Amino acid sequence: MEQELKALIIKQVQEAKDEVNSLGLSTLFAVDHQKVVGELKGLNMSEVLNLTQMEKVVVEISEDGKEILEKGSPEFKLVAELLKRGDKAVKKELDTAFGEKYVRLGFAAAIKSKWIEYDKPSDTITLKNKQVDMSKDETFNQLKKFTENPDPSSHSEELLKDYEKKRKFINRNKIKFYKVEKGPRFDQGLKKQEADLTTEMLSEMQAEMKEGKDWSKLFSFKKYNYLAEGKKINTGGLHPLLKVRTQFREILLELGFQEMPTNNFVESSFWNFDSLFQPQQHPARDSHDTFFLSNPRYCKVLDKDYFMRVKNMHQSGGQGSVGWQYVWSEEEATKNILRTHTTAVSARMLYKMAQDFKSTGVFTPRKWFSIDRVFRNESLDSTHLAEFHQIEGLIADYNLGLGELITTIEDFFCRFGIKKLKFKPAYNPYTEPSMEIFAWHEGFKKYVEIGNSGIFRPEMLLPMGLPEDVSVIAWGLSLERPTMIHYGYKNIRDLFGHEVNVNDTKKSSIYCININ
Length: 516
Ligand code: PHE
Description:
The chain is α+β, with helices and mostly antiparallel strands. It has 20 helices and 17 strands. The protein has two domains: 95 residues, Arc Repressor Mutant, subunit A; 267 residues, 2-Layer Sandwich (BirA Bifunctional Protein, domain 2), CATH 3.30.930. The radius of gyration is 43 Å and the shape is elongated. Phenylalanine binds next to strand 16 and strand 17.
């Protein structure tokens, strides 16, 4: 069909004596104007045709006018209907058949011309004048004339005004169309437009050239359309959590932090709790909060000495502490769990640093971070899942205090655009002092909790064997919270898990956190 339309257009331009335009072509071939224009533009691109945009005013039939063209004018339709029904009809019945407004219009006009009479008590319309000439439906006939010849200059201004302004059956609208003329490559019009230049074509051209013929006319090439949209490539999309994680990682690396290895979801209770001086009766260690493994249920103890030092610190303390004063259970410490926080990894790293110190006699200050998944036995709702990601950071150095902790956290968050922070005293079994971190949320107009922090207790660090004047400042926060705030997620299940909409993932912007 397209090839056909193209050929028809070219033939018409070739043969027509008068000016050719898109509107004329559309009526001539009875093809939608837009379709003709599409075809013309293609031919214009390949320089077969030249197009000039034009404008003109045409008469268009309004919605009410179209109804008359379809059904006849209301008064004539009413008379025709009465004739059909034996000169009488109940008005209500006509209302349901033709629409109340349409009947009302015809009713008024027919009464005025004394064609009908109306009896109110019985709601009956009776035909009085049976001589109404149905072919004299002026309105219908005139509207038909307008469709046949939409050029306003062929109709009297008085008539146009009456139909447009008074009766609102027509509108005069400006429309755009194209004047069509032959282009520089008109003679190539029906030739296939090549999109690729092949070696075969080159040798054909060469042969033509050798024979002294005009090789340049042998093929007709499609012009490049630099504005054409490329093919949509269906790629994957980075999950918002991954984007935000990338940004957190970049900032922490910029600040000189090194990444801790977090590739173990299964952890022993020992590293997750005991090494952090978290007593065994602590409610967080209950199965209501923590997932315990049934197989393998227990872990091996590798450094028995350290294990015993932790036991003693819990039971009776030492080095200035009285400990927790209870009987520490080895069995409880060796239970395997899914780690409830990445502070378990921090504990392992600090222990390693202490081992290095023991073997070399030199303590090297370090800044560590990690971003990975943790698990808690939570009841699920729109802001809680049983697994989430934590961003953990720590600095181990000589004589660090609360001042360093606050400025480090401020510096860290400032780089995400989180500038208004508040610190609130809190409690953790493994840090003293401890502080919850709150950030001002411009959207919620309040401070929201974004993290927890503190200075690790000597009861945690000394059994590891770290030098006494080394202190460790640390903090942890959820990755989901800033991601939800940044991307406007109200329900965490839309962000993480099987209900995630893959399209949202593809559309989500490149990371850029700014919750202020
Ligand atoms: N482990 C804490 C939590 O899960 C965060 C934290 C890390 C607090 C380090 C203090 C120090 O919320």
